[in-house]
Amino acid sequence: MYEVVIGLEVHCELDTKSKNFSSARNEYTHIPNINVAPVDLGLPGILPVVNEEACRKALKTAMALHCTTPDEVIFDRKNYFYADLPKGYQITQMTKPMGRNGYLDIMVDGKTKRILIHQLHLEEDTASLDHYNTYSLIDYNRSGIPLMEIVTEPCISSAEEAVTFLEDLRDVFLFCGVSEAKSDKGQMRCDVNISLKKKGETKLGTKVEMKNINAFNSVKAAILYEIKRQSALLDEGKEVVQETRRIDEDGKTYSMREKVDAIDYKYYVEPNIPPVKLTDAYKEELEKSIPMLKLDRFEKYIKEYHLSEYDAQVLSKNRDIADYFEEVLSYGSDIELAVNFVTTSVLSSLNKLEIGLDEFFITPKMLSGIIDYVHKGKISLDHGKKIMYQAIEKKKDPVEIIEESSLSQIDDDQVLLDYIKAVFSENPEQLRQYLEEDNQYVVNFFMGKVMQKSNRQANPNRTLDLIKQQLEERKKEYEGK
Amino acid sequence: MEYSKMTLKELREALDKDEVTSEELFQEANKLAHQYQEEYNPFVTIIDKYKMKKKKDTIITGIPYALKDNISTSNILTTASSNILKDYIPVFDATVYKKLKEAGGVLVGKTVLDELAMGGTGTTGHTGIVYNPWDKTREIGGSSAGSAAAVALGIVPFAIGSDTGDSIRKPAAFGGVVGFKPTYGLISRYGLFAFASSLDHVGCFARSVYDIAVVTNIIKGYDPHDMTSLKDDGKDLTETLDNSIKGRKIFYIKEICDRSQYDKEKDKTVLEVLDNFYELLDKMKENGFIVEEVSIDQDLLAAIYPTYMCISCAEATSNNANLTGIQFGPRGEGNTVLEIMFDARTKGFSELIKRRFVLGSYILQKENQEKLYLNACRIRRLIVDKMNELFKTYDGMILPCSGGAAPHFNEATDQLSERYLLMENHMAIGNFGGFPSITLPSGFIDHCPIGINLTGKVKEDDVVLNMAYQIEKITGLKGMKAGDERCMK
Amino acid sequence: MVSKEDLKKYASKLMFDMKEEEYETLEKEFKIILKQMDLIGEIPNIKEVKPMTFPYITYDVEWRKDEVDENETLTVNEVLANCKHQINDQVKVPKVVE
User: Fold this and answer.
1) Over its length of 489 residues, how does chain B's per-residue pLDDT go in tens digits?
2) Are C89 and A32 within 8 A, CB to CB?
3) Distance of alpha carbon C39 from alpha carbon C19, whole angstroms
4) Ramachandran class of B443: left when φ > 0, alpha when ψ lies in -120 to 50, beta otherwise
5) Residue B2 in contact with residue B481, Cβ under 8 Å?
6) Nearest Cβ partner for C64 among B184, B224, B345
7) What domains can you pick out in chain B, each with its CATH number?
8) CA–CA gap between residue B64 and residue B86 (Å, rounded)
9) d(C-alpha B345, C-alpha A324), whole Å
10) Which of B72, B81, B82, B143 is catalytic?
11) CB–CB of A416/A410 below 8 Å?
12) Do B176 and B134 form a contact (C-beta atoms < 8 A)?
């Protein structure tokens, strides 16, 4: 058996209005070359002008990943020739990346694992190439889009860990609002470095690199395939070749090129971008804007709210849901009821309506209103849920609905007793079952009948109490006979 | 009237008095441009149609001028005097061009430079050698060769150049005109084809210090397209020109100017230059300047040239990596993208450029970077620190621009002695620290002009121009063009 | 010492070739400049000096606000104005394999 050592380099396009170094639009489009400024085309005489928002988002992500941030922001040039690189160099960060030495905790098989982040830096995307039979076409729309690269330490030891990390990392991007991180649009891409070594061996094995994998399940497939392929080679006493491989649609990896000698990118400080100091005030303000991350919320829900792992997971998985849930609680709602409502009614409504929380009619405040009524026993849980659906349908404040109907709610014991007595006499068989056979289920039966008879206006809690009390009295009478 | 002899200021007056129209000035300039083109080759492109699209009235409204051909001009061929850009027609305007256009300047032509501005002779442009208007057997110097020649020939009263080591100031000296490279960042570099971004400056040539101040006023200013451009200071550079210079302190460097280190026979012209230099210093002292000799570590001075080579070549390699013939420029032949890039670059660059690129790339290589590139950047700091230290005491530094008048084409450059190298290359100091630096004519050797260079503190362009204006009064060499009779004295 | 073969390799990494005699000139140039740089390395305490990239630093530089400037955006015709090899509004190159 071998130990698997994986390091990931994740690229993520940042969600900004304009590009990283020009004010051309940053958008995903199929119409070629419509979002191109001279800077993005690498025309003679161009100068980069740094996008404030791109820096902000990269720094925010760095902080969310617990990285140390630099005292000032500068950029470097990475020099190489390629068809998709119009300037012949990429503006990136080497000397002082936006973040260093961070981590992200992930949960695999119920255990927390800390994935170490080597560095996070801000750079620019390249132009995109479309390949045809005999030629390729260059579209410069993507050229210069702000790109964030996150490099992990080689500390990932399975495909599952790799994919969980990627999923959680995407959640960080989404939680922080820095990117849509859609892999089908190429907004999140990943390079995988993988090597195998004998258990207990300290020396790393030969590294194989797989570049630009978009979909997470392709990452998984590629890693699993490589583990199998490299294990087989090592079993046979053969050597793993240091090379770059690509993954095909069949889930297998194929050699692209053997590593000749490493390219020397001749990095040096970009002289056209003077340093900008990061003040403590700026960093503090940015720090404050970072929302709690998934795993932190998960842990908080369990520790502070005493939620089950299942509920905690459902609620922390998605930032919108978690924020919604927390806002409901912020109005002082009962935690158990809030969990119940959000994990069932709210989520199923969203599913059914095929909408997101941003379009959902019931605000956290409205929901907390319903929960309050249920909590105080003024309405039943079921009734509360029905009110919620009614509110969605009528686009009406649920509390108003409750208040309107409660004007006619029957709280008077005498009236309720009349209903109960009538129901008892109409259903002698059920009464007999209680008296003779001690059948407790009939309580609910009578409850239903009273509600029916009262057009659901009977106060449910009071009715239940009265039914139980009446049945007890009759039983005493029956036993005394 | 002979407009070609007039300064910008005089032309303005003539225009304002309706003695001449802007279009007539343009036609005259155009005629001269064509007339001199064959003989001296200042232009890559001569504009034949009068065009003025001012947004406001300024001193330069209606005045003809020329632009170095490494400044981006939409719809006008811009070649950087290189085959790799021989058909390149920009789609955007350099900020300096935009400002001149809006101020009503009338473009007469795009001037020849040393290929990609990398060179100091004016002999390496793809359209041929630029000849010195004072003596056709001599260089005009470079890289802003055509701009210097156009002003020296009287075709235009002012021209725009760029300066990375001394590319404005050297040819200005050899052309007998004034050349100014202001503080780094005073004039936007947006649209200037980059040679070495941390050393590149836009600047101008004219026939008087006053005209230099006028043109600088027009083209300076913060530009959101250039992060290294300075915030506006609101200074009108013409206003302070005539301020008194009484008590202004300037220094010269002993290790460059000490006569005793030069040989009476072998370094005859250097000594003539120094005679002229010291004579000027004496007159300056009479006029209220305080001039002192300062000694600077010889090793540091000797490091100026290699430091300049290392930094400029390193940056140039990267800055010109966009010239691949893919998205613009002549397409190379080949079966793969890399092959067509290879072919385009092999054919597109001349030998000198390639040699500098290889050097620059070697300097940046991982294994050499520490010893070559970073050490050069360290020396740069030592030199700049030394200058800033001196500038605490002094308002400026004055030195001869070169060890003689413009060299003849047949003079081999590798015969230069090491001390001579210093005399020829010290002006790069101005680029290392982004100091404002001006060259103005100070006299003649063999009837050809020589110049002095005055360098001051960062952001004190006004002080440098003020001092230069007063020195110009002392030399009396204002408003010269080639063949000026003053050279016969 | 840098050999002519090394120089050829460096040139090819910069995407061009030179003539034989040009490499010879270059070899000589390298000798001169490397000798000069050796001298620089001998300047006392040089290693302790912070390398300088910018002529001066003001720290009053501001980043650009994240706004789209349509005036700065080129039309497709402008993007392709200097490229003769184009199809479908894109730059055409030989097929890029990889």
Assistant:
1) 688 999 999 999 999 999 999 999 999 999 999 999 999 999 999 999 999 989 999 999 999 999 999 999 999 999 999 999 999 999 999 999 999 999 999 999 999 999 999 999 999 999 999 999 999 999 999 999 999 999 999 999 999 999 999 999 999 999 999 999 999 999 999 999 999 999 999 999 999 999 999 999 999 999 999 999 999 999 999 999 999 999 999 999 999 999 999 999 888 999 999 999 999 999 999 999 999 999 999 999 999 999 999 999 999 999 999 999 999 999 999 999 999 999 999 999 999 999 999 999 999 999 999 999 999 999 999 999 999 999 999 999 999 999 999 999 977 554 445 667 889 999 999 999 999 999 999 999 999 999 999 999 999 999 999 999 999 999 999 999 999 999 887
2) yes
3) 31
4) left
5) no
6) B224
7) 3-246+401-488 (3.90.1300.10), 306-380 (no CATH)
8) 25
9) 59
10) B143
11) yes
12) yes
User: Quick one: angle between helices C20-41 and B375-393, nearest 10?
Assistant: 60
- Asked if B227's CB is within 8 angstroms of C61's CB, the reply is yes
In angstroms, what is the C-alpha Rg of chain B? 21
B68 is catalytic: yes
Side chain identity, residue B22: S
Q: Does the beta-carbon distance from B378 to C46 stay under 8 Å?
A: yes
* Collapsed DSSP state (helix, strand, coil) of residue A261: coil
Q: Tell me the residues of chain A between 17 and 36 that have a Cβ less than 8 Å away from chain C.
A: 17-18, 22-25, 31-36
B181 to chain C, minimum CA–CA distance in Å? 14
In this structure, the dihedral spanned by the alpha carbons of residues B66, B67, B73 and B75, taken in order and rounded to 10 degrees, is: 40
Distance CA B139, CA B125 (A): 13
Identify the DSSP state of A344: I
Residue A138 with chain B: CB contacts under 8 Å? 326-327
Calpha distance B223→B190 (Å, rounded): 8
| Residue from B167, B188, B208, B229 carrying the catalytic annotation | B167
Complete domains list, chain A, with CATH: 2-281 (no CATH), 292-406 (no CATH), 413-480 (1.10.10.410)
C-alpha B182/C-alpha A442 separation (Å) is: 98
B143 flagged as catalytic: yes
Alpha-carbon gap: B488 to the closest alpha carbon of chain A (Å)? 42
Do C89 and A33 contact (CB within 8 A), yes or no? yes
Is B147 a known active-site residue? no
The C-alpha atoms of residue C80 and residue A187 are separated, in whole angstroms, by 26
* A135 Cβ under 8 Å from any chain B Cβ: no
CA B368 to chain centre: 31
Would you say B428 and B305 are in contact if contact means Cβ atoms under 8 Å apart? yes
**Residue A410, SS3 per DSSP:** strand
Number of H-type helices and E-type strands within chain B: 17, 11
